[in-house]
Fold this protein.
Amino acid sequence: MSTFTELGLNNNIIKALTDLGYENPTEIQEKAIPQVLASKVDLKAFAQTGTGKTAAFSLPILEQIDTKSNDTQAIILSPTRELAIQIAKNIAEFSSHMDGFRVAAVYGGSNIDEQIRKLKKGVQIVVGTPGRTVDLIKRKQLKLANVKWLVLDEADEMLNMGFKDELDKVLAVTPKEKQTLLFSATFPREVESIAKNYMHKPVEISAGQKNRGADKVTHQYYVVSERNRYAALKRIADVNPDIYSIVFCRTRRETQEIADKLIKDGYNADALHGDLSQAQRDSVMGKFRQKNLQLLIATDVAARGLDVTDLTHVINHKLPDQIESYTHRSGRTGRAGKEGISIAIVTQREKGKLRPIERLIGKKFMSTPIPTGKEICHNQLLKLIDKVKDININETEIKDFLPSIYEKLEGLDREELIKRFVSLEFNTFLTYYQNAPDLNDSEHMQGDRRSDSRGRSRNDENMSRFFINIGRKDKLNPAKLIGLINDQKISNNIEIGQIEILDTFSFFELDKNYTDETIAIFKQNDVEFDGRSVNVEITEKKRSGGRRSGGRDGGRRSSGSGDRKRSSDRKPSGDFSRFGRKRSDNKSAFFGKKTSKRRKG
Ligand code: AMP
């Protein structure tokens, strides 16, 4: 392995790298730096996020930049604002000992005049998003006539995001005699055609094999039924008390829905997607970077450029439509030499999508059972014990209270005391997961379940039961009821459970994650059936076996919103609920001493 000095970098750069704690070059740096220093030939690099690619293209350019000239000598294009800011920040750090050097990031959603003012001062390297770069070129504020290097970072993402026209426009105003460096994690046809049209006989380098997943990432999958997808996500979070993860969803709506549910259920989570304003996105990303959030629910696009190096997990709440996106997602963990886990939550039907991904990443997914309540309790209990071991004791303050405490605890031995203190926190958690069902959806497990005539499991904790004021006399049958529910468009593929049609009213079960939405949407749509105005209300679950006394449904209905979210849906309170909202401003409350130490190390 070479050192940075051996790669040909000068002392000012080496000093900055030492400040940053970079000891040795990464594989892509080892390959790209000498190549760009020694040759003007274009470069095509296969590199994932997290491989150190930013330094791989920035350092050799910085080494050759003319700080005596105020001309823009390098333009770096990146798909998102966040990534552009991150690259510019890295370059500023790498150049901290270089006098007369300036770098600027230009991106949309931010005041253009301020960016123009910066450019006017003379900036040797500009990092920009394609849209804003073109805008500044059109306004004649960004002049690329003297550019010696053009970097296309995450080229596949830029093309995925529809920036082909913008790339063409930027490429058209740069001089012919320049070196183009193209970095991409995947090389679909569109990227190859950019390389073909705009690069001249490029040298190819790669860190690891083409399109291969980052080396330190383990890939796992969990098989669940659609209605248990969310419950599985919660269990994954619960069994990993120190989880720090991005949960990827496919659409903005799904992202917001999952984040809302997690927040309601007491998790320390938030959403990141394109429907949020820039200020909201900045705030969420800030909180996540600071580790004030443990779970970031995000779309692929919004999460790009979020430079977080120590994610413990990446969770695919749903697999991406394009398999290449999986590489980008999983590449967010296992960075900078750390280990990471990429999880896919899939239904039996979606299992087939894993094969092509395995071929792409060159690794196998491990089938993993969804954690049981017992495993979760075990891990949470150990976390509590760690916290007890790590707690700071305020000897001075506690001293005065100790005599009366000892007096009260007299007669209890060590074992008894430990059990009692632990139970104080643990009982709520234990109760929450007592009798928690098995969520794994596999053939043999399904055989164990008691199913109704429609093949759906009965007494399912993940379903809510609804009363509807129409029945057989209104010519309602199960098919018509399913049609009526689907017509309301509560959510795509919402799981419908048991249906019971009686003479003048009926019952149906739906995924309980949509309880509030179901009530609200039926009300809002002013639904009519066969000339009758339809009324839907939540009812208590029917207990299996035996009739219940009470109202016409043998159960109790409640339409007050306060009752709808049953307390059992929420994370248990007590010290285990480290996700608790009231603590969300307190970083150390979520990441106990042990984690902080790990982060620093
Ligand atoms: P990148 O792939 O450029 O996004 O880099 C991923 C992470 O690795 C960033 O946090 C970098 O600061 C870090 N990094 C890059 N190169 C090195 C290196 N040679 N030594 C240590 N950390 C590095």
Notes: The pocket of adenosine monophosphate is lined by residues 22, 25-26, 29, 49-55, 307, 309, 335-336 (CB under 6 Å). The longest helix spans residues 414-433.
